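Tip: read the tokens left to right.
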């Protein structure tokens, strides 16, 4: 059960340009508004992540991801619909919608539609996709609990949305939509 006041606090933090932590399918994640340049830059600084790498966007539904999917063929949409919601992140061609810090040095955007109830509720309450990147400093293992998140980031986050991990043993598979090639299994 998701505590509505905690969800409201996390959404308010996101809308105010904050960076939050929340549980995902396999590890704890950091998130922010993917259209807020200052929030994106802050999230990357917190992680000490190379901006060239880009980040994943997570959505509650294919409809939420639709602005990033304009230009994707019907066959490719069918591939997405057959896999989502679920633990597969697809690299889709950038149609100009993604911020440069989301994309990194790539011509594709990493998108996932989650089936994790808390992630879905968070994206629905926020009204769109969020950045979803593992809650850790670059080169360190991802946090597996809210306590670990707090140990790593202390007071640097604007909200920590309590909840359970989704039970997967590893982060989502990353697959190139155009080629089908698996980049992370």
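Filled-in amino acids:
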């Amino acid at each position: 059960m998701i505590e509505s006041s905690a969800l409201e606090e996390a959404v308010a933090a996101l809308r105010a340009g904050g960076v939050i932590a929340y549980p995902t399918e396999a590890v704890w994640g950091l998130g922010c508004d993917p259209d807020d340049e200052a929030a994106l830059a802050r999230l990357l600084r917190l992680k000490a992540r190379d901006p060239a790498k880009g980040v994943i966007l997570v959505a509650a539904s294919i409809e939420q991801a639709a602005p990033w999917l304009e230009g994707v063929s019907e066959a490719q949409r069918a591939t997405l619909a057959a896999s989502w919601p679920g633990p597969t992140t697809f690299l889709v061609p950038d149609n100009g919608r993604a911020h440069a810090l989301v994309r990194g040095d790539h011509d594709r955007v990493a998108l996932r539609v989650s089936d994790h109830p808390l992630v879905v509720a968070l994206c629905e309450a926020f009204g769109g996709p969020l950045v979803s990147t593992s809650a850790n400093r670059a080169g360190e293992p991802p946090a597996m609990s809210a306590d670990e998140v707090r140990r790593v980031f202390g007071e640097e986050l604007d909200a920590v949305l309590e909840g359970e991990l989704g039970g997967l043993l590893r982060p989502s598979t990353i697959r190139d939509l155009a080629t089908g090639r698996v980049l992370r299994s």
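The mean pLDDT is 96. Residues 4-15 form the longest helix (12 residues).
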